[in-house]
Design goal:
The structure holds two protein chains of two kinds.
Chain A (H helix, E strand, L loop, with lengths): L3 E12 L2 E12 L3 E5 L6 H9 L6 E6 L2 E2 L10 E4 L11 H11 L4 H14 L15 H13 L5 E5 L7 H18 L2 E6 L2 H7 L2 E6 L2 E6 L1 H6 L4 H6 L4 E11 L2 E6 L3 E6 L9 E6 L5 E3 L8 E10 L3 E7 L5 E7 L14 E5 L6 E4 L1
Parallel strand pairs in A: 3-8, 3-9, 6-7, 7-8
Antiparallel strand pairs in A: 1-2, 1-4, 4-5, 9-10, 11-12, 11-14, 12-13, 14-20, 15-19, 16-17, 16-19, 17-18
Helix pairs in contact in A: 2-3, 2-4, 3-4
Chain B lengths: L6 H32 L3 E2 L5 E2 L5 H6 L2 H33 L3 H12 L6 H12 L4 H20 L5 H9 L8 H26 L3 H8 L4 H12 L1 H16 L3 H6 L7 H9 L5 H27 L1
Antiparallel strand pairs in B: 1-2
Helix pairs in contact in B: 3-8, 3-11, 6-7, 8-11, 9-10, 11-14, 13-14
Classes of the chains: A alpha+beta, B mainly alpha.
The structure holds adenosine-5'-triphosphate and magnesium ion (MG).
Magnesium ion binds next to helix 1 of chain A.
Chain lengths: 360, 303
């Protein structure tokens, strides 16, 4: 048995007729920052609750640090949870909240005092021990929830959208802080979020979920650059989907005809047959725009709309009668000199490997 | 504290509360003052009140006879409160943790017996507890006869003490125990409802947090659920303890001649002895004890 912090083997959870988690298998390494990412209701929280022991799997097995959990109650599992709503005990002070887990483990009083003040220092809340949770801001409460879990030095920390209730700016700051903290303490983090940007910036690996199933597991780069399905490509970042039919093969590339007029050459990473309906996915930032055709691969188009968004400019470009793609260009130069006006005819170009062939 | 901003607003406020103020003054505060004044008076030769100012009535309360009754009253009220709590809290917990659509049905079941008149219900307990009541009919009847037949079939020495015990009725009626049973029965909903309200408001995700932090079920209850539903426990206890202290009907019906409470003393002073001043003084002592108890209880409950 290798040293996985968490392993799920074909774990399912049914609530009556609802299948919240559907045959999920995951192996999470020791010390890894692992994210569960997916839209609302896809079963992220339920997966986390299965690991914590608040729910028992309908089928399948869960291992924590190589040990089969079975019906082990939550209070005997070497994991701690940071709840989405923090679930701080309102009748206790911050100190009592953080000390709770240690008290339950019968740690000596002097050691409790020291570890609590250490961990409060670590989450940058020193001297707040005497306050009640209601006297703290949302961000501070979030840190207390984190401290209350971390003080127990668990093997695995489960976090359920811990930054969900914070405003954008605080959220960004906390993302960095949390990642830094995880690196420092070396605890395995299983992190639930529905925010793809958050998952990309923080995680070592991501599992993308939909309808209770895990669709793809990989590093942020793999998930972003090589999405395994249309859902993943769509959910993570922005993507242009061009639907067409396979009409030819040239070496390792296939020719896909879009709307019957536009031929794209795409690397064939998967087996496709002639006449198959496929989707070609291209990220908006992978496309460059040119006034003159740079080579034979370039695709002509007409600028429909120009949207200035600060760091970039987004162009909506019509390729064929029905197909419009989004192109994103960084605003490197000042002013509008580099801009293409609506109505301009131009040429689009991308690296062949930037285009992904997905099954329709 | 709300601050009243202007004279006009103050007048409007006074106008709005004047009906209830009037009610309180005329029907509560004035009679209370009257009773307080009478408690310093003297019994007239043919009843009635002689208006003198003395502390004789209060001194008389400290007679061992009355102190003993007062002590028993405190004991009965305390026992009633504790039993109500031990029965009522788990019941409230059970109801509050059912699916929402079941909760009202359970609460309704709890309330239905209380649509019957209190006197009738207490009288029913009399029929159950007295020497020829339901329990004793079974005890000295079916049970005794059954044992008798068993002892004939299987002549063993173990039947002897059992037969002797069931030969005579149990003394249930006329004891402190009978009063406590009657009071617990009467005031149970007053314990269950505030406890239910507190438990129903309780956020059970906090129990998950406690269990996540290695607290087992008992520890989660003692450290999280109980402290956070203490407001219900305090309110319920006060709502049971205070009326139990002043109970009159229940001890009168179930306590017989031997077991009486301070409420019966007050009643007999006003009705039988026609000693209004002493009755008033006892009332005031009781009220002072209730007030002090309530204050202390709320003070400690808040921490
Ligand atoms: N106790 C339960 N009883 C019945 N159905 C449940 C229960 N818990 C979750 N579900 C259902 O299971 C599915 C997955 O829920 P879950 O809470 O795991 O989603 P999630 O991915 O965490 O969503 P969100 O991002 O909104 O928190 C949902 O359809 C939900 O309605
Ligand atoms: Mg969730």
């Amino acid at each position: 048995m290798s040293t996985y912090a968490i392993q799920l083997k074909d774990a399912s959870k049914h609530f009556g007729s609802v299948i919240a988690v559907d045959r999920v298998s995951l192996s999470i390494h020791d010390g890894e920052f692992f994210s569960l990412l997916g839209p609302s209701g896809c079963g992220k929280t339920t997966t986390l609750r299965l690991i914590a022991g608040f729910e028992l799997p309908t089928q399948g097995d869960i291992y924590i640090c190589g040990e089969l959990q079975g019906e082990t109650p939550p209070y005997r599992r070497p994991v701690n949870t940071v709840f989405q709503n923090y679930a701080l005990f309102p009748h206790m002070t911050i100190f009592q909240n953080v000390a709770f887990g240690l008290e339950m483990q019968k740690v000596a009083r002097a050691e409790i005092r020291q570890r609590v003040s250490e961990v409060l220092e670590m989450v940058r809340l020193p001297g707040m021990g005497g306050r009640k949770p209601s006297q703290l801001s949302g961000g501070q409460q979030q840190r207390v929830a984190l401290a209350r879990a971390l003080v127990n030095r668990p093997r695995v920390l489960l976090l359920d959208e811990p930054l969900g209730a914070l405003d954008l700016k605080l959220r960004k700051a906390m993302q960095l802080e949390l990642k830094e903290l995880q690196r420092r303490v070396g605890i395995t983090f299983v992190y639930v979020t529905h925010d793809q940007e958050e998952a990309l910036t923080m995680s070592d690996r991501i599992a993308v979920m939909q309808h209770g199933r895990v669709l793809q597991v990989g590093t942020p780069e793999q998930i972003y650059e090589q999405p395994a399905s249309r859902f993943v490509a769509d959910f993570i970042g922005e993507t242009n989907f061009l639907e067409g039919q396979v009409k030819g093969r040239r070496g390792s590339e296939v020719a896909v005809v879009v709307d019957g007029v536009l031929t794209l050459h795409v690397p064939a990473e998967r087996a496709v047959g002639m006449e198959d309906e496929v989707t070609v996915a291209i990220r908006p930032e992978k496309i460059s725009l040119h006034a003159e055709p740079p080579d034979a691969q370039a695709v002509p188009g007409v600028v429909e709309e120009v949207i200035y968004t600060g760091t970039d400019t987004r162009y909506l470009i019509r390729l064929t009668g029905q197909t419009i793609v989004t192109v994103r260009q960084q605003n490197v130069a000042v002013g509008s000199s580099a801009c293409f006006a609506p109505g301009t005819r131009l040429y689009l170009r991308w690296q062949p490997e930037s285009a992904r062939l997905l099954m329709a | 504290m709300t601050h009243i901003r202007s004279r006009r607003e103050a007048l409007r406020l006074l106008f709005l509360i004047s009906p209830s103020l009037f009610w309180l003054i005329v029907f509560f505060f004035v009679p209370l003052l009257l009773v307080f004044a009478i408690s310093f008076g003297e019994r007239g030769t043919y009843g009635g009140v002689r208006w003198v100012l003395n502390l004789e009535n209060y001194r008389r309360f400290f007679d061992p006879l009355y102190l003993r009754i007062f002590g028993r009253t405190l004991y009965i009220a305390a026992a009633t409160t504790i039993i109500c709590l031990l029965v009522g809290y788990p019941l409230a917990y059970f109801i509050a943790t059912r699916p929402p659509r079941w909760r009202n049905a359970f609460l309704l079941l709890l309330m239905i017996p209380f649509w019957t008149n209190f006197l009738v219900r207490t009288y029913a307990w009399l029929l159950i507890l007295r020497d020829k009541g339901l329990i004793n009919t079974f005890w000295t009847g079916s049970l005794h006869m059954g044992l008798l037949q068993l002892s004939r079939l299987l002549p063993l020495p173990i039947w002897e003490p059992l037969l002797r015990a069931t030969a005579n009725p149990l003394t249930l009626f006329g004891t402190d125990g009978a009063i406590i049973i009657g009071l617990v029965y009467g005031w149970l909903p007053d314990m269950v409802l505030p406890c239910y309200a507190a438990i129903e408001r309780f956020d059970f995700s906090l129990v998950e947090a406690a269990q996540d932090l290695y607290a087992n079920r008992r520890q989660s209850f003692l450290r999280v659920i109980l402290p956070m539903t203490m407001s219900g426990v305090v309110a319920g206890s006060v709502l049971v303890f205070i009326p139990s202290l002043g109970a009159y009907v229940t001890p009168d019906l179930l306590g017989g001649a031997k077991s009486i409470m301070i409420g019966n003393v007050i009643y007999s002073q006003f009705m039988a002895a026609r000693d209004y001043p002493f009755g008033s003084a006892v009332s005031f002592v009781l009220m002072a004890v209730m007030l002090a108890g309530t204050l202390i209880y709320f003070r400690t409950g808040r921490e």
